[in-house]
Amino acid sequence: MRSLILLGLVGFAAQLVDGSLGMAYGVTSTTLLLAAGTGAAATSATVHLAEIGTTLASGLSHWRFGNIDWKVVAKIGVPGALGAFAGATFLSSLSTESAAPIMSIILLTLGLYVLIRFTAYGLPRGNLGKPLRKRFLAPLGLVAGFVDATGGGGWGPVGTPAILASGRIPPRKVIGSIDASEFLVAIAASAGFLVGLGSENIDFAWVGVLLLGGVIAAPIAAWLVRHIPPRILGSAVGGVIVLTNVRTLLRGEWVDAPGGVQTVVYVIIAALWVAAVAYSAREYRREKAIEAADAELLGSAPEEETARA
């Protein structure tokens, strides 16, 4: 019972982050399930089955708050589903021993990307209003869907920053559109795992608890996306993913590092993680101060023109 309650809290926290940032439900949940000793393919299958419900709830919540661009959902969702089905069947064919370190490497790469991307660059806002073309979104969806299924997460870490980097639609609509299109990806990945694994390797109690936690968090996250600083959250989540998957690799058969080496690596990563979050918080405050100063200057300009008249 205690493990189920903990899993429900993981689902709640992961969806809270995912719905606010447009990524990290799958990566966070998969990382923690792998750390608990669950097989790679079974872990990804469990997470994707839960995501069918969480992404539906998240998509509806984002739609209610006006956070979705349906043209983007259509152009990226179908290729994403094809990539996810292919990735699920590929992962199902690997042995558990082979798949676990491969998945950790994928997750570590995604975690580093999230950490560096949000810490160093924040959210780009140029090119707003320009259309996102199918020739950009379709290959992006195909790759993101494949990575998502093989890594137990990746739809958001691959898709969200790529669309944000274009600067063509507001960040809240990027996040809402990615979350809504992930519903198709979750269905396709789940179908691939059921074909490749069968249902006997999946713990449906875990699926249900993850789903429940995520569904409760979905409307809260859709509201928070208008208020929470994504730059700080991205740095924080990226650090969790990096630290957890480095731990998995260092303790695995591929590396099997001595305890002293592990401790030194953890301390270094933790220090860099704290520095990254602090830097993101400082840059966020600086950006807000600049925006406030610009708004004040714009507000005072009409008054000066009136005084001259």
Automatic annotation (TrEMBL):
It comes from the Bacteria. The keyword Transmembrane applies. This is Probable membrane transporter protein. It comes from Acrocarpospora pleiomorpha. It is a multi-pass membrane protein. It is found in: Cell membrane; Membrane. The chain crosses the membrane at residues 34-60, 72-94, 100-123, 204-225, 232-250, 262-281. It holds the Pfam family TauE. Keywords: Cell membrane, Membrane, Transmembrane, Transmembrane helix. Its main location: membrane. PANTHER family: MEMBRANE TRANSPORTER PROTEIN MJ0441-RELATED, MEMBRANE TRANSPORTER PROTEIN YTNM-RELATED. The lineage of its organism: Bacteria, Bacillati, Actinomycetota, Actinomycetes, Streptosporangiales. Coiled coil: none annotated. GO terms for cellular component: plasma membrane. Belongs to the 4-toluene sulfonate uptake permease (TSUP) (TC 2.A.102) family. InterPro entries: TM_pro_TauE-like, TSUP/Inactive_protease-like.
